């Protein structure tokens, strides 16, 4: 009898998981995520209690002590162990502290490509309690000065290969009293000091943690530039706790301590640096660092370095799928890919072509306060809702009018949450658990990302600018970024990137880029509404030359419309939908219109050109 009861009870226990599974097929993954999330919460609260704050640098030092001889960075034909990187960073810290007179709280701009030095210079600055500002190494002249001035850095450290770019802006930097160091052994330009020789001579002895004694979890640690939704790049403030949160994504995605990660994304962005390098430090794994993405060398590198984890953003996996098929496509050790922005169709293609690789989509803006992770591997989803997540953070999808480009309000003037399964604008409440640090020295742009009085008077939300949909199972799907991209010739055109480029031309004061429909063509072709600086004229040749040298052909605006005033939407973004509908017909639009004539310039748009395009005589 007793045996029978025991037997029933045991079988009952055995089928319990099965029952749970039928009720919720993602039960085990949800459970695993719950455990991870709780562990992370516990660790973060432990760090919080420590003074000085236990930051990622401390974790790095712990890894150095635990596994000094483990390879940390593999780069081209060189390799560096955890201990070597630590010593290199000590030398840099000493050289910069002696010659750059840096102290806790100072900001240093780093203008450097993807190379191992990037990592140890950042570690060095962190050891000194300084804030690093990562400049995009592709920018030049005015954009470079703009980004540099965003963060009020006192010192610039630049790669030797970027010397020309630095010399171009040197007079302005010197006027502002900025110290400029170049990573080479000598410098014969007045105002540019060599740093590599100083680093070589410096001692590699550890630095006192006292140097960063005042750092807290909320102290700014990094400035990372994002385009946000409009205008010039802005420096998102990344504090120490945010570094932790993003670093933990690797654990959530399933990275193990014996993995080898391939980092080819630019280190000046959060994907490459925070998710890639910082995540690797958290796990104590090996990083294979690449100067830049190369679709044709990608898998050879993975084979050469025994890579097991890769990252992706946007279209990178698409580019891999577009390479010619090879017999050894499945011959590699990659088992996990994590990142953001893979399209559902590419996802399926990718798996079929390159084998059984677990794909983990993560969603979140560099400056955003709440994100999602698709820890179930559901094709096409950018994340999954989780009850812990819902308990800890208040977020919502609100109804959005894409015509008027603003949220729909109810009779009392508040936003309306969309029902499950419908698309809405993702907003997340700003609070202690979900802070929004904003953009450095840019109160106006910071304010623009905030929404007030969303559901009740006085509440405050972060406006992601993304339209999402959440299905009945809690999977989150990306629908659109408001007014930010359009497709032309099968390529995504990022309007902010094009606008940023146009702003670099002398005569342009403001630029608003959007896509217009052309009869007989798929997608939308680029058009820009420009506001010209006072007392200047539209310089078609200059804009043409700039656009030709800096933008791929599919992203070059084919039409330009000159406006006296930029029309803004209710949420202070340039109006795009209405302009896109108005198109480029000179018979209808009274503003001056220009047309990009191949191999020539922007020329005034005529009725004749308009008709030829309509009749298909001019192919765009
Ligand atoms: C840390 O803060 C204390 C008190 O605010 C100050 O006296 C000290 O100089 C600071 N230390 C550094 C390294 O800035
Ligand atoms: C990759 O793995 C193979 C077999 O496990 C090993 O022989 C080889 O040395 C490894 N390559 C590198 C670069 O570690
Ligand atoms: C523009 O120039 C390129 C190369 O110089 C040439 O291949 C192309 O046909 C030209 N396009 C037109 C419309 O003249």
Automatic annotation (TrEMBL):
Pfam families: AMP-binding (PF00501), AMP-binding_C (PF13193). Residues 498-573 form the AMP-binding enzyme C-terminal domain. InterPro entries: AMP-bd_C, AMP-bd_C_sf, AMP-binding_CS, AMP-dep_synth/lig_dom, ANL_N_sf. Its EC number is 6.2.1.3. One of its GO terms (biological process) is long-chain fatty acid import into cell. One of its GO terms (molecular function) is nucleotide binding. It catalyses: a very long-chain fatty acid + ATP + CoA = a very long-chain fatty acyl-CoA + AMP + diphosphate; a long-chain fatty acid + ATP + CoA = a long-chain fatty acyl-CoA + AMP + diphosphate; tetracosanoate + ATP + CoA = tetracosanoyl-CoA + AMP + diphosphate. PANTHER family: LONG-CHAIN FATTY ACID TRANSPORT PROTEIN, LONG-CHAIN FATTY ACID TRANSPORT PROTEIN 2. This is long-chain-fatty-acid--CoA ligase. It comes from Cyclopterus lumpus (Lumpsucker). The gene is LOC117727071.
């Amino acid at each position: 009898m007793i045996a029978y009861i025991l037997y029933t009870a045991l079988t009952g226990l055995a089928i319990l998981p099965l029952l749970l599974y039928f009720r919720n097929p993602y039960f085990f993954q949800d459970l695993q995520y719950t455990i991870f999330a709780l562990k992370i919460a516990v660790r973060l609260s432990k760090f919080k209690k420590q003074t000085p704050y236990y930051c990622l640098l401390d974790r790095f030092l712990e890894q150095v002590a635990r596994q000094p001889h483990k390879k940390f960075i593999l780069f081209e034909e060189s390799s560096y162990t955890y201990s070597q990187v630590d010593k290199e960073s000590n030398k840099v810290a000493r050289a910069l502290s002696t010659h750059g007179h840096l102290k806790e709280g100072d900001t240093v701009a780093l203008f450097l490509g993807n190379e191992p030095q990037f990592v140890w210079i950042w570690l060095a600055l962190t050891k000194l309690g300084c804030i690093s500002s990562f400049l995009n190494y592709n920018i030049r002249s005015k954009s470079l000065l703009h980004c540099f001035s965003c963060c009020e850095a006192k010192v610039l450290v630049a790669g030797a290969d970027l010397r020309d770019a630095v010399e171009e802006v040197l007079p302005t930097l010197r006027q502002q009293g900025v110290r400029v160091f170049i990573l080479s052994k000598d410098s014969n330009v007045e105002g540019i000091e060599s740093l590599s020789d100083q680093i070589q001579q410096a001692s590699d002895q550890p630095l006192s943690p006292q140097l960063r004694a005042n750092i807290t979890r909320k102290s700014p640690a990094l400035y990372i530039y994002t385009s946000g939704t409009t205008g010039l790049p802005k420096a998102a403030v990344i504090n120490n706790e945010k570094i932790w949160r993003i670093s933990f994504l690797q654990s959530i995605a399933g990275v193990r301590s014996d993995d080898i990660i391939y980092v080819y994304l630019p280190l000046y962005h959060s994907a490459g640096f925070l998710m890639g390098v910082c995540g690797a430090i958290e796990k104590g794994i090996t990083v294979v660092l690449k100067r830049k993405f190369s679709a044709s060398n990608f898998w050879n590198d993975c084979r050469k370095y025994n890579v097991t984890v890769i990252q992706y953003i946007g279209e990178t996996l698409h580019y891999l799928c577009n390479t010619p098929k090879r017999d050894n496509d499945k011959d590699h050790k990659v088992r996990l890919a994590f990142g953001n922005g893979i399209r559902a169709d590419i996802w399926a293609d990718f798996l079929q072509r390159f084998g059984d690789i677990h794909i983990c989509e993560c969603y979140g803006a560099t400056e955003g306060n709440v994100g999602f992770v698709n820890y179930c591997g559901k094709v096409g989803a950018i994340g999954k809702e989780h009850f812990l997540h819902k308990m800890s953070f208040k977020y919502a999808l609100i109804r959005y009018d894409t015509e008027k480009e603003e949220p729909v309000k109810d009779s009392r003037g508040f936003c309306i949450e969309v029902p499950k399964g419908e698309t809405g604008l993702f907003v997340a409440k700003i609070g202690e658990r979900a802070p929004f640090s904003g953009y450095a020295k840019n109160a106006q742009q910071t304010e623009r990302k905030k929404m007030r009085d969303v559901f009740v008077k006085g509440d405050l939300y972060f406006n992601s600018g993304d339209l999402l949909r959440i299905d009945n199972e809690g999977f989150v799907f990306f629908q659109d970024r408001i007014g930010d991209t359009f497709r032309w010739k099968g390529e995504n055109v990022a309007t902010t990137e094009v606008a940023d480029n146009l702003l670099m031309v002398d005569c342009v004061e403001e630029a608003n880029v959007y896509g217009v429909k052309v009869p007989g063509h798929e997608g939308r072709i680029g058009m820009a509404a420009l506001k010209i600086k006072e007392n200047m004229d539209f310089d078609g040749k200059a804009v043409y030359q700039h656009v030709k040298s800096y933008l791929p052909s599919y992203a070059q605006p084919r039409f330009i419309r000159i406006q006296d005033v930029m029309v803004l939407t209710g949420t202070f973004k340039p109006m795009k939908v209405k302009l896109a509908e108005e198109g480029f017909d000179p018979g209808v639009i009274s503003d001056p219109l220009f047309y990009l004539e191949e191999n020539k310039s922007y020329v005034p748009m005529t009725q004749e050109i308009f008709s030829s395009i309509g009749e298909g005589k001019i192919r765009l």
